[in-house]
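Hello,

Our lab assistant flagged a job as stuck in the queue for most of the afternoon. It eventually completed. Since we weren't sure the result was trustworthy after the delay, we are filing this so someone can double-check. Below is the sequence as submitted and the structure that was eventually returned. Let us know if re-running is recommended.
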Amino acid sequence: MLTAKEIRKSFKDFFESKGHHIVPSAPMVIKDDPTLMFTNAGMNQFKDIILGNKAAKYHRVADSQKCLRVSGKHNDLEEVGHDTYHHTMFEMLGNWSFGDYFKKEAIDWAWEFLVDVIGLNPERLYATVFEGSPAEGLGRDDEAAAIWEKHLPTDHIINGNKHDNFWEMGDTGPCGPCSEIHIDLRSDAERAEVSGASLVNKDHPQVIEIWNLVFMQYNRLADGSLQPLPAKVIDTGMGFERLCMALQGKTSNYDTDVFTPLINKIAQLSGKEYGKDHEVDVAMRVVADHVRTIAFSIADSQLPSNAKAGYVIRRILRRAVRYAYTFLGQKSAFMYRLIDTLIESMGDAYPELPAQRDLIMRVIKEEEDSFLRTLENGIRMLDDAIAEAQAKGEKEISGKQAFVLYDTYGFPLDLTELILKEKGMTLDQTGFDAEMQAQKQRARSAAAVEATDWVTVNEGEQQFVGYDLDVTETNILRYRKVKQKNQEYYQIVLATTPFYAEMGGQCGDRGKLVDIETGESIEIYDTKRENGMGVHLSKVLPANPASSFRAEIDRENRMAISCNHTATHLLHQALREVLGTHVEQKGSLVGPHSLRFDFSHFQKVTPEELSKVERLANRRVRMAIPLDEHREMPIAEARAMGAMALFGEKYGEEVRVIKYEDSVELCGGTHVSNTGNIGMIKIVSESSIAAGIRRIEAITGSAVEDVFDEMHRTLQAVGSMLNNAPDVVGALRKSLDDNADLRRQAEEAFNERVAVMTEKVLETAETVNGIKVASMRGVRIPDIVKNIAFGVRAKSPESTVFIAATRDITDKPLLTMMVTEDLVKGGLNASAIIRSAAKAIKGGGGGQPGFAQAGGKDADNLEAAFEIMRDAIVK
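-- returned structure --
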């Protein structure tokens, strides 16, 4: 029986023998594509080639791609664990042709690999073909069907509808018919009783799709019409886990050696046995699946957080913790203990896992601990809501309450339902669904983007010249109008551009586009990267898009960005020298005003260490080290030079190296010609953003001058307040000490005054029905009244009540009441009495049964309010 490792290798070897170039998996987390957060298909890393924005270096490619599907069109999250074949993170085996071979080779090679190479039984295989769509003017894919007839009997070739057999990248863009390969894994007896053909695409757990062959031959426009693609594309994707299930004779992906090591470890840690209890089995499958997703995401530098991709990862992690908590009895962190088992299984194919082991384990453990605390808090909040409902005689919790728990506090809905069931309560599911739908609609409205079709002005590919030039002559290749959040703007693609498009943490350039003939100038307010090309954003379109233009960046803005980007490299190098070579970049944000740099380090950086880092970086600034740039260097040479490749980044075979003496990094951003241009670097903050991840923020150049100027002005102002004392620090310390002495004296006088007044109200107290009633009226400081109330309770702890109807120096009324503990137990409630009396002064308030206060607006009725409080005691 072939192992998972052998199956993965055999696929790559087969397609390499067919002239395919084997490429490494792209990161699972996507950083520079605004349309995607995660790689959800093998084709994602080739989007710019498929869209025609970039020429293909290799026309035949194959790989094994790590993918993640949890949101949007491919939302499989709630299926995971409950069936045998859905996953969040999965591997996609794929082969591509960019303008080379098409349907015949794709189908013939798929059959050869499945049947001749790895030995699947051809009698169990079925193929689907697109049945056509009269509404689109598309006929049946007879070409694909004819090829399949060489390999399969006609009753194993099934027509599929547009939903299943017409693949589209999105609402617009490349698309085409596809042909799915399904396998029937049922027993011979079951197959004899019911034909597999009748179960294809019917969600049968044993009759499943294993490979999809997509024949991209059309381009869908915004109006819904189709145009033939000039260069046809083959894009295939085969589920690795499903293929392993078929080859290893299993009926569940989780029974293959892809998952069994993890499930065995979960069983060992939890003391539960897999295969004995349905709920336990589901929980184990959830944890086994989710820990893979979480570990790979962290290895790709995506940490759990409350925003965007980070929120998705946190949601997956919390789902796993919830299942472990409820069904596996895990009340403390345990998923992080699965990482070594995962590395044993997948570390060879994905070296980022062992390389990032300590970080992955620390982050997961911290997230587990945090969410377990959330679960405890959520259970307390739910208990309070249940008690409140029961006090009203109700048996249902409102959907809004449950949604607040779910959305604001991260408390799982199914756990809410479970606890309610145990307490004999129900949930207003309709109300919850309404709240959820309203939130989704808000999110859709915020993210909705309407775009027209691209209008092509000139043919060609974009060329970036911004490393060398800040102005250049150019033409518009294409443009389109976009509407988002009630804002309209234009996206413009230039043939030649000096504008750097936002990527790798560096923000995009801004500047202007000038019509050379007419002098018309439009502002470019930002530059984004989309599908591998720079897209220039402008509120207006040139009057004549077909004209020739001068593209000119904002030089001052670019210089500020470049200073901050180079500063991140110098700080990175200095951090490694001061803290150790374990320091690695985990994220950055470089703009014109400041820089942010995230790095791996497992404890707070001390002020002394920060000072050393800053001094080292600034020493290199003063040395005015010239930029040593290497473009299109083979990546092996770059690594030999000492360049640091960052986990979670996708590098080609040739890379750009940025070197300032000992600082050597792979980087596509813009930098200063020598470090002296930076002027100075000042670190302004250091903090933690996750377990094992620290963040520094810094400024450079004129921003440092501004900070120093402000500090100097502040120091001068403080000195002036201290009569320009030569020793400002000493004078300030003496002033603070004197102030502390005065405060102590004032507090002593205050406490003495309270003590005297407490004795006085006790001396003048009356006894009513065996209760000592101390009282106070007049103009009083509110804090004095409160302290007197507590003083009375301290001196007379039984059968005593204190009531006060006072006003402050602004004539604002205040009612105060204190009741000793024995009277509270007897039924006297200060809070209830105060609320009743406060109506007389047009106010409100409350507190505890033993002490309460209320303010109001009508001081003239203080006496009436006082009598209400006194009468409540007398009665």
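-- support follow-up --
The delay was a queue issue, not a problem with the job. The result is valid. The mean pLDDT is 91. The two ends are 89 Å apart (CA to CA).
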